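Table S2 (continued). Query chain:
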Amino acid sequence: MPPDELPCARCQESSLNRVGVGKSLVDRCPSCHGVWFDSSGDELRRILECGRDLVPDAIKDSWDSSDGQLLSAAPSKEPRLCPRCRRPLARYWYLAEHGQTFLVDGCLRGHGVWLDSGELGKAQAILGQFADTAARFREEGIISRLLDSLREED
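Corresponding output:
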């Protein structure tokens, strides 16, 4: 593999293809359809904010889930390696909010995160549920009442 090409975190043999999404460039595997998001530029967050309808067709099949399952806490059967440093990826909560986000395979050296095929759509659905809940809490005044009660305790 040429030195300027990144190997797939999952397949480890395929070279990732660069795909432009808005102002970001992400790396997608043509074999397994997984996607690598570099940490610089907060690529994953930017792609999720775009939504499926605004991403190129090359990313849509990586977005769509074939199994309909929510993201699982179960570790991957196949080892994932960072395309940049080739060290094993660790499984952790995106944005570090256990139970309020989704799991990613990420490089502990800060190079980026990997999502398998279908996990983009699942991630957007999960984040959308939390946004809907937060909006409902604001509308019903739940957050204001909780803040007021905390202020009264001081």
